[in-house]
Every structure is written in structure tokens, then in C-alpha cells.
Specification:
The protein is built from 11 helices and 12 strands. With 339 residues, it is of the alpha+beta class. The strands form 3 sheets. Strands 4-5-8-6-7 form a 5-stranded antiparallel beta sheet. α5 runs antiparallel to α8 (167-173), α9 packs antiparallel against α10 (288-298) and α10 crosses α11. The longest helix has 17 residues, at 311-327. It starts with a strand and ends in a 12-residue tail after the last helix. The relative contact order is 0.13. The structure holds flavin-adenine dinucleotide and iron/sulfur cluster. Flavin-adenine dinucleotide binds next to β2, α6, α7 and β8. Flavin-adenine dinucleotide (FAD) is lined by residues 25-33, 50, 73, 100-101, 105, 108-110, 112-114, 116-117, 164-167, 214-215, 239, 241. Keywords: FAD, Flavoprotein. Residues 1-225 form the FAD-binding PCMH-type domain. InterPro entries: CO_DH_flav_C, CO_DH_flav_C_dom_sf, Diverse_Substr_Oxidored, FAD-bd_PCMH, FAD-bd_PCMH-like_sf, FAD-bd_PCMH_sub1, FAD-bd_PCMH_sub2, Mopterin_DH_FAD-bd. This is FAD binding domain-containing protein.
Length: 339
Amino acid sequence: MRPFDYHRATSPAEATRLADQKGSAFIAGGTNLLDLMKLEVMAPDRLVDVSRVDADGMGGIEPQPDGGLRIGASVTNSALAADPLVRRQYPLLSRALLAGATAQLRNKATTGGNLLQRTRCYYFYDRDTPCNKRSPGSGCAAQKGVNRNHAIFGTSPACIATHPSDMAVALRALDARVELLSPRGKRRIVPLEGFHRLPGDSPHLETVLAPGELILAVHLPPPIGPRQIYRKVRDRASYAFALVSVAVVLRMEDGRISEAACAFGGVGTVPWRDPALEIFLKGEAASEALFDEAGRLLLRDARGQGGNDFKIPLLKRTLRAVLAEAMAERASNPAGGEA
Ligand SMILES: Cc1cc2nc3c(=O)[nH]c(=O)nc-3n(C[C@H](O)[C@H](O)[C@H](O)COP(=O)(O)OP(=O)(O)OC[C@H]3O[C@@H](n4cnc5c(N)ncnc54)[C@H](O)[C@@H]3O)c2cc1C
Ligand code: SF4
């Protein structure tokens, strides 16, 4: 690991001021960044620690007047998953968080850091191989290499790596927005939909964050429905990233879907969502034909890379199982306000 300066910020304004110079990086739980620094895949000169910043709501979970929630960027994954309001109103989020990593890691990992965690592509971590994300223009070893855990949606000739976060998949289905603070003191709110960039020909640019810009919080609107399921398929029951994951939020009225949001993990270069699928689901009742057509529609543009071809039928089967479970009569949660 290369030497670096370390500063602990006490407020968001101080953090952005300290980070407003080339070679600076924020550090929160450090569960991803420190691994990357040890491998010298990332080598910041200066770390600005924001893990203990509580000011401006960075350390809290606050109910909002519209019935939604503001989640501070320094809130740990454990605290967020265990929060009573999150468990009651956004069980999808709680389950996605608990499906990630291990208890020790979740105790350190934060909301902001989780959104910005880097891919788990093996070649990204191996400095002896070409990787456009780590070293722009060097090539992509995964295209003709081992690509079992890679993406089937949103890929480009430059990069086929997945976004690894479980939390971000749930947030995508819940229409989250990300609140940012610039070193000039300017605040802006970006929908999560536009926060992560597709790789295109510049996979090293992963988000729309400007240099020195800090994630202050994540905002959630009230959920569109009480039926919320997160299912993660992985190689081991814990300590493993998703091969595929499906997040579904539904509202049913008179046996038919009145609202639907579906997001997918382990399959996209960004947390994936498909508006055409959601439009198709609205007004439908549960049937084998519906589940078949939903899978066909979702996977219409999926592209396997060889080693990950199995994700196409696996995602189809997982979506079918999750939709069937979410639409079943017993899934109705009176506390969620469904008619
Ligand atoms: C063994 C292992 C297994 C794992 N399994 C899973 C899993 O199954 N599912 C899953 O989703 N995740 C998994 N993870 C990843 C883990 O969830 C992330 O490492 C963690 O969420 C990152 O949060 P952090 O606070 O530690 O971020 P850090 O490592 O501190 O930072 C990550 C990045 O975010 C930036 N950053 C942090 N906070 C801010 C902020 N407020 N504003 C702007 N930039 C910021 C940092 O500069 C850095 O670039 C696993 C990790 C490990 C080590
Ligand atoms: S898939 Fe992306 S992260 Fe992996 S080697 Fe290719 S460019 Fe690098």
C-alpha cells in the first residue's frame, strides 16, 4: 500500500473542503476502498474520513413529511437494515442489505460507500491483466476470459462488469434519489436511475459525481406497494455476491397488479430496471402465461458472454418465482395499506 495523508472530517462542509484537491478520496467504512488500496488498484494521496460525520443528517434516518425517508450517507448497513421504520415500510431494503456481505462487514459498511463500491470483476483487482476500468484504454481481459459473474445487460465492447451492490438494487426499485454536496457548497439531488453510468467507452467513469462531491443522503419516496420481495441467488448462503437477484415491489387491487417496480442485480453493469416490463405487468392477474411473457420481455436484449450464459435462464426462473410469491394472496400485508 502506498503512503497517504489521513484527515477525519467533522462536518460535510469540512469533508468537501478537504477533498477538494486532486488525489483525494473519501473513506467511510473502508471495506472496499482499503482492499483496493492494498492491491494498489486505487492509490489516493489523501483520505478524508466521513464515517463519523453526523451533521446535516449524514448519520441519521429521518422520516419525511411526504411519508418517505431520508437516509444519511454515514448510516451503516446494519443500522439501516434494523431500523423499525425501514423494516415496516421498506422491507425490501432491509432484506437486500441483510443478503449482502457478513454481519461484521455490514457493521462497518455505509450507505454512501455501498452505492460507490467497485465491481468484483476478477481482472479489475489483478494489475497484471488489461482492464479498461482500472487502466483506461488497456483492453478488457474478461471478454475472452473468465466471465462467469459478468453482466448480461448494459455491457459495451469496453467493459462487461456488473455493479455488485444488493442495496442499490433495492433502492432502484424504490425510486431512490441521491443528495450530493459539492466543494463549493452546492447541493443537488440526482435520481438513482441517473447516478450510475453505463460503461460505454469510458468504464472508469462510474457515476455522475463531480470531483470532491460528497454523498450526503439517500431519499426514498413512500413505497408504491406493500408487497416487497428481494431474492438473491448465489454460490453460497452468505459471503457471496449475487449471480442474479430480483427486487419486486407490487400493489394488487382486485387480484390484479395496479403498481409494479422491478429491479435486478448481478446481471447489469448498473443496478438494472426495465420500464417496459413494469408497464406490461400493470393490470395483469397471476398466471403461467404472465410469468412466461414477463421473463421473455425482460430478457429480450440480454447478451451472455459465454461463461455467464446460465444467467439468462436463471434470471427468468427467479423472476417467475418472485412474481408468483409476490402476487399470492398470502403476500398481502394489511399494514402496507393495500386495498
Ligand atoms: C468479503 C466481502 C463480501 C461482500 N459481499 C457483498 C454482498 O454480498 N453484497 C453487497 O452489496 N456488497 C458486498 N460487499 C461490499 C460491501 O457492501 C461494500 O464494501 C461496502 O458497502 C462499502 O461501504 P464502505 O462504507 O465500507 O465504503 P468505503 O470502502 O469506505 O468506500 C467505497 C467508495 O465510496 C466512496 N465513498 C464513501 N462514502 C462516500 C460519501 N459519503 N460520498 C462520496 N463518496 C463516498 C469512497 O471514496 C470509495 O470510493 C462485500 C465486501 C466484502 C469485503
Ligand atoms: S469487464 Fe470491465 S472491470 Fe472487468 S476486465 Fe473488462 S474492463 Fe475491466
